[in-house]
Amino acid sequence: MTLHRPESLDEALSLLGGGAVVLAGGTDVYPGLRDGPPPSRMVDLTRVAGLRGISLRDGLWRIGAATTWTDVLRAELPACFAGLKGAAREVGSVQIQNTGTVAGNICNASPAADGVPALMALDAQVEVAGPEGPRRVALEQFIRGPRNVDLRPSEIVSAVLVPEATGQGAFRKLGARKYLVISIAMVAAVVEVSGNAISRARVSVGSCSPVAVRLRGLEEALTGATVAEVPGIVAGADLPGLTPIDDVRASAAYRREAVRTLIARTITDAMEVRDVT
Amino acid sequence: MSLDDPKGGIALTLNGEAVILGADPAARLSEVLRERAGARDVKVGCNAGDCGACTVLLDGEAVCACITAAGQVEGRVVETQRGLLEGPEGQRLAAAFQRHQAAQCGICTPGMMVSAAALLRRGGALNEAAVADALGGVLCRCTGYRKIIDAVLDASRHKALVAEGDRAPVSEGGVGARVERLDGWPKVAGLERFGDDVAPADALSLRVIRSPFHRAGFTFGDLDAYRAAAGLELVLTAKDVPGENCFGVIPGFEDQPVFAEGETRFKGEAVAAVVGTPEALAALPDFPVTWEERPANLTPRGAAEAAQLHGTRADNVMCRGRVARGDAAGAMPGAAHVVSGDFSTGFIEHAYIEPEAAVARRVGDRIEVQCCTQAPYMNRDGLARILGLAPGDVRILPTATGGGFGSKLDLTAQPYVALAAWRLNRPVRIAYTRTESIASSTKRHPSEIRMEIGADAEGRLVAETFDGVFNTGAYASWGPTVANRVPIHASGPYLTPNYRADSAGVHTNTAPSGAFRGFGVPQSAVAQEQLFDMLAEKLGMDRLAFRKLNCLRNGDPTVTGQVFETGMGIEACFEALEPHWAWALAGAEQFNATHDTVKRGVGVAGGWYGCGNTSMSNPSTIRAGVTPAGEVVLHQGAMDIGQGSNTVITQIFAEALGVSVSQVALVGPDTDVTPDAGKTSASRQTFITGNAARLAGAALRAQILRLGNVGEGAEIGFEDGTIVLSEGGEKRRVELPQDEGYALEVTESYDPPTLPLDENGQGVPYAVFGTTAQMAELEVDLELGTVKLLRIVAAHDVGRAINPLLVEGQIEGGVAQGLGLALMEEFLPGRTENLHDYLIPTIGDVPPIESIIIESGDEHGPFGAKGLGEHCLIPTAPAVLNAIAHASGARIHHLPATPATVRAAILAQRENGTE
């Protein structure tokens, strides 16, 4: 077995291909082995210079690909990131948060990825590094389906990018126990309020469709709403993007219904500016 | 830098020492630390980051070593539980864990302490929420987490280094004292050795080949060619079993093959095993087996029509049980109020954090097996039958056992390693993977229960009928025990003049259902105690008052006609809850007046459990001696799987002998030197082995007093290798014979007095019943169906608390398992074979638990003590379900009460306006 530990992005890229598995926190790679032996060749990104950390430049927040959930929690970030921080706190456990990365969560492309709804609500983009140079893809396009992302074998995600924004973030995860739980449904929102009404809402839902989705129709319907009006608007909204299934955690019928409660509460959380950091 | 091969080694600082480990850099760090660095205090419970047992500090941050590549720690600092003991946080934590008995079995303790150390190092004042956040990634199945929270908070307050003297267990105090766990220090110091921690370095590894289908025929390819090509030492199948290819636990029901022959009956059943070096097993090619999937039946509903699993068991009914008293059918129409309902529960997985593990070695013409177990002698006899040996030629050397709860009674891994070691004459080891453990070990029986209960106009019980069908899976295991025990217990601890209870254990193509804390009684309590609430509502009676009105009192006959003249303590349990009940009801009413979405509810339930085997002999034997050097030695064979028998039995023995526990040295349950104290199950050890220990202590005391020719009141002491007897201010020295072996020795047995049951189940099934009443306070989010527990109050009549700290530990751990049964746990064969799809409560899911210990004494128990282990979880689930109904109006008939289930019940209740 070979574990490559490159120290530069170019070196990392040169090691890709040929069935190499990209490793960072290991929190998805190793469970995925199901007690089997490790892959014959892995490329560990955790020593690549400049790949870990969060910075702001030219109106764009950059979350390096090796940035862990604990890094997110410890970073000083504006209010719109409150949902992402809320998600960071609910990823698995402290152990998982300490090594699991934001980019890894995206690349694993689980329908229940804790970080994806919050990043979608932030209009996150994915920066991909490859032999032809870097490219950027909107997160919504990057994840094509369960375990399926827009990434060639010769490429890695180098960063997640979030445009600077105003507004208040919020996140709610519904599960059957407190810690170490895969969600039944998740909602993330970033809400801007003008006066006492919503001027712009961004809402994303996870675990209720093959890939987390933004609810743009609902977002439009919420513009101009006061806190009191939110539950009614959410209850009456058409949410065609949500196609929940029955699984061991909950029925589709329950998800379909409960997610509306969760959406209304998450938006309300953001409007009431709960300090979730 | 690139670690392309292991020749360079991985350089790291491990527990303060620079080490270089020659290992595959892609290997799991947990495996490398355990197997290459000897850090056996790093435990492996899941290999998926789901349980946290392998938590280590990596540059000061808690990580799961099982999902970290070994090569990633190059140049970094790794700390394990053992290393933390060298620093102030670890020392404070170890002392606090020991003081609070925060370690029961001890398998999660390394993960808990390491996680807590990271938290303590950050400094600052702590609260429960911060502790829970820090420890939320470590699962514990024994403690219910409350004492772990207490210990961490306590450690955070003790800034000073703990003095050396405080490290040792406090070992003074007899019966009734809160003695710290006598075997606790190794658990908190990273020294405890469990089933997978004891294999010699040269041991071969074994892997079991299992059926991927619920039912399948199978044929092997060329196994010899495969063995040679794969570089294996041995391939085992049914034809390699020298004795009987069969095991079981109930006489007449031994029906489970070590290796299936011709057809597998459940998904996960073994058909073969391969043995080789770890390297050979890591590179194992596909095993040459061809499967032919066959139609399978997974529920009792289709069992009568399904293919018969066992030749002699028509309609796939393994066995039935019945208790009948009075005339239930005749009396029911005369009842003023009648309620009835259908209730069901699913498979429950034991989910001990230590998967099954064993290592075997051949010693001449004997075989020795080290393993985690609840039943060393049953394992010995079962293995002897499989190997075709005399029982005396099999030696079981139990390791520490990382939780059992019933499933480690049965043979699991032991036959495979024993067969392989016997054939190869080399040590062979195995540790089950989590998936393998969940797929193949026994489960709590799923239940389908219909029950009807009638009361008169004043609220007194008139009649009950109970019909319970239990899915016993592919093999009998402890299914007959469940079928027999449930009808005796389904009335609950209440005076029920007309009673008819029928049970059936039905075979299906699923993992065998066996023993699990309560043996079917928690399932029947879910039905009976919920119907009691429905009946109280019909009567317009307070739910606690209804139970108190009907509970058994001394002199009342049980449903088997047994009458206890003393020690029936259930009324005292309900009375102990009364102030809490009134306060909680008032609190809920006040809360609900001002809240619409979240509603508060309070529930109560009673429970009882007969200690020991049902109308069957189940003796325990205790051996003790005094060495020529004057050391008292207790051969303590009651397996301590975390519940505390090493401490309790010693306290009883020391009390009877008249010495302090610190003067007693323990010899463990090695079958070569320690007699059979029976199995650790059925809440029997404190009662039965405790009695044997009491008799042994008393007999040894009599010998000593006789030797010194002193009276019964004399005090026994030891000085300079002699016994010193003090009486009336005078001291008398007794020189001990300097023979080989013990200078003085006793062996005493105890078998509880029971009587057989007649065809209507009338008789004396148990010498002792323990009773309990628990109360749950919780909040239900009516829109989401989520349940938030606020508090549990648990009153338990334990007769006499030998060690109140251990009693609390049993209660809290049992309650946590009851919460899991009520709210989240369900094993679905083939679907929830890991610890992220099969959910057990985390540290954030168990609310504060207030234990109320009632000591009503007992006619037979040692110093009046009764058993306790199973009782703790019996009322928990129904108390929670009754509280959910109180809060929401919705009655949950089919467990678990997940958010989706609760929400559906709320919607149904709104639609129908009824339960």
Automatic annotation (TrEMBL), chain A:
Name-wise, this protein is: CO/xanthine dehydrogenase FAD-binding subunit
InterPro entries membership? CO_DH_flav_C, CO_DH_flav_C_dom_sf, Diverse_Substr_Oxidored, FAD-bd_PCMH, FAD-bd_PCMH-like_sf, FAD-bd_PCMH_sub1, FAD-bd_PCMH_sub2, Mopterin_DH_FAD-bd
Could you tell me which species this protein originates from? Allosediminivita pacifica
Spell out the PANTHER family in the cross-references. XANTHINE DEHYDROGENASE SUBUNIT C-RELATED
Indicate yes or no for the key word Secreted.
no
Q: Note one Pfam family from the annotation.
A: CO_deh_flav_C
The yes or no answer to whether the keyword NAD is present is: no
Q: Which UniProt keywords apply?
A: FAD, Flavoprotein, Oxidoreductase
Write down the SMART domains for this protein, in alphabetical order: CO_deh_flav_C
Highest lineage ranks of the organism?
A: Bacteria, Pseudomonadati, Pseudomonadota, Alphaproteobacteria, Rhodobacterales
Q: Where is each FAD-binding PCMH-type domain found?
A: 1-167
Single Gene Ontology MF annotation: oxidoreductase activity
UniProtKB/TrEMBL annotation, chain B:
Which keywords appear in this protein's UniProt record, sorted alphabetically?
Answer: Iron, Metal-binding, Oxidoreductase
Q: Which Pfam families match?
A: Ald_Xan_dh_C, Fer2, Fer2_2, MoCoBD_1, MoCoBD_2
Signal peptide positions on this chain: none
Per the database record, which ranges form the 2Fe-2S ferredoxin-type domain?
8-84
A GO molecular function term, named singly, is: oxidoreductase activity
Q: Check the record and name the InterPro entries matching this protein.
A: 2Fe-2S-bd, 2Fe-2S-bd_dom_sf, 2Fe-2S_ferredoxin-like_sf, 2Fe-2S_ferredoxin-type, 2Fe2S_fd_BS, Ald_Oxase/Xan_DH_a/b, Ald_Oxase/Xan_DH_a/b_sf, Ald_Oxase/xanthine_DH-like
Record keyword Metal-binding present: yes
**Protein family membership:** Belongs to the xanthine dehydrogenase family.
The name under which this protein is listed is CO/xanthine dehydrogenase Mo-binding subunit
Give the organism the record lists: Allosediminivita pacifica
